[in-house]
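User: Teach me something about this protein's shape.
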Amino acid sequence: MFLKNETKVAVKLTFPEDLIIYSRHPEKEFIENMKKKYGKKDPTNGEKWFQTYQTAKKETWRDAFIVGLNERLKTYSDLEFVTTDQETNYTLIIEADWIYTGYGGSASVGREEGKLETTLRFVKTSESDSEVYATQAPKVIGNYAYGEFGDIERIRECYNKLGYLLSLQLKRILK
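Assistant: First, the predicted structure itself:
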């Protein structure tokens, strides 16, 4: 396998323009709905949610994936997954195919974990068109999370769990 002699692989998250969130909403519609929801009482809160969401897409979710993967990977391999600002021979591109942010509330109202479907593509870093391996990841159900913007946190949990699940698959290959 192409990863056997590697020490580092970069990780990049991508989100297609036609990304569907909540089974039926295009991402643009989802963003507008969430900005309205969080901005009802305080208009600046809707913009704060949007900025947090943009940061999550660029860094937070990627970092959660890397942590979920590297924590387990280091127990049996020298391979490390890193951010794209480091020099690597290969890059793992994680393309979001579908996101369900779940919902939160009190125990009487109910709550549900986030869900995520992705395509994982390993490419040569110098030639991003040169796909070495690709697979559709199974639907990931994250752990329940809450906080100021619980929807974003629940998706972070999904990316963390995706890293964990990939570490289980890599263990079979790299050992």
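Now, about its shape. DSSP finds three helices and eight strands in the chain. Helices lie at 27-38, 43-73, 150-174. If you'd like, I can walk through any region in more detail.
User: That's plenty for now, thanks!
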